[in-house]
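Standup notes
- DV: blocked on the single-chain target, sequence here:
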Amino acid sequence: MANTFHLAVPAGDIPTALKFYKDILGCKTGNQEEGHWIDVDFWGNELTLHQTETRQNRERHHVDMGDVCVPHFGVHLDEDVFQNVKKRIEASDIDYLDKPYRRFKGTEFEQETFFVEDPNGNVLEIKTMTNPEVLFKVTN
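- DV (later): unblocked, structure below
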């Protein structure tokens, strides 16, 4: 676990947030302080959901494929896991903020991505890359 990424986010009502992270995304939970916070196994990363009274604010920023929500966080998944998560979302009552689409088609950086939000307004980008080994390849 030495290279596990940790992120703590405002979750609003934790039981409501857990319905999204566990039931829809399929994440497991870990350590918690009842009524205050709970750790979620976000595909090998430690996502801590904190009980809060406030909802997350966001805005849209222009990138190559249009305007994306900022702030957002996410994960790169293997193709089969990515497709499974997509099916789980489509079988739920969750709407995409940005529907699945392919970026950088025909290049070594090709990827499929989509954006969803959790019940407290945290925006998640879920993606799969055709060639994940080029993620940090220097292009300039």
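- Follow-up: Residues 101 and 112 are 5 Å apart (CA to CA).
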